[in-house]
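Tutorial, part two.
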Amino acid sequence: MTPSSRQAAQTTHVGRPARISRQDIARAALAIGLDKATLTAIAKELGVDHSSLYRHIKSRNDILIAAIDLAVQETDWQLDSDHPDGENWRDFAASIAEACWDLFQLHPGIAKAIRNLEVTPPSMICIFSACCQRLEVFGFSAQEATLIMDSIMDMTNDSSIGWQHMQSKGENGTPVSSSLARSWCEMSQKEVALSPYISVMTDIIKGEPKDWWRQKLDLILDGAERLRKR
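Running the prediction step on this input gives:
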């Protein structure tokens, strides 16, 4: 290659947009955090121009859908595990709930994004339906299986959003959990008759999030057991 042709090749290479895919954009959004993943931040993460993203996505909501879809696909839902018919349905349902909780903790902002989307990512529909199908094998009707899975997913989503909010900082820089606990303690002093319940709730706010979530999960599964025995 002559000096002039080498220079021309280098000139052609410089400024050429980096090759990215929809999956690259989704993965970058997850790395940043869906609560912080703006188009500008994603473009910077990928080292491309802002306009390059629109070759693969239509909007920020489209990015959220792609990111959630990818995160759900990469979660181990243990759908291939062996569960003898009629014996370990509860273990199966609990394992799905744990996987859902871990997904929300691994990717801050994903639970809230799911709640606010106008459409459901394809992988979520498939996983949800597959879980319901497995519960049918354990003896539940399609209606009952859907009710159980929807209750588990809704409770886990809402709990995750709430706990992540409490872990954030308030306007004065104080953890939201501290401010909430203080408000309950103050009310306990004003409403002595209600203090036993307020005290329990204060301990919950100060405690380990997953412990209280698991108690809620047990409540749902106890109700599912009644459906199954009926």
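Confidence is low (pLDDT under 50) at residues 1-17. In part three we will examine how such features are distributed along the chain.
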